Amino acid sequence: MRSLSYSPTKEEVTKYFKKHVGSDGRIEFSSFLDILHDHSKVENCEKELLAGFKAQDMNKQGTVSAAEMKHILMTTGEKLSRNEVDALFQEAGLQSSGQIPYKTFVDTILTPSPDY
Fold this sequence. Notes:
InterPro entries: CALM/Myosin/TropC-like (IPR050230), EF-hand-dom_pair (IPR011992), EF_hand_dom (IPR002048). This is EF-hand domain-containing protein. This protein is mainly alpha-helical. It has six helices and two strands; from the N terminus they run αααβααβα.
């Protein structure tokens, strides 16, 4: 699901698995498509991420400080380690200090990575 740009929580994955697993311990492809359809109704990653960053944007300029973004990524939701945050900043071409345009950041992290 993550390779298709969905971000289910561990609890959601467990719920889907329990609901759709067959007697052989596998999920049929048709059931997987049902799961994707169901999950697409409840998730809008871009909207959720932008709302979270907008709440931290005290100056309403479309930016948050790099320090604040690092803090958010390491202390909320599925917390990232400092190494993971540093790698994410590097991959996204972000400076480790100053202001970060969060719309650009969200677009970058939601763009699927080529797997070739």
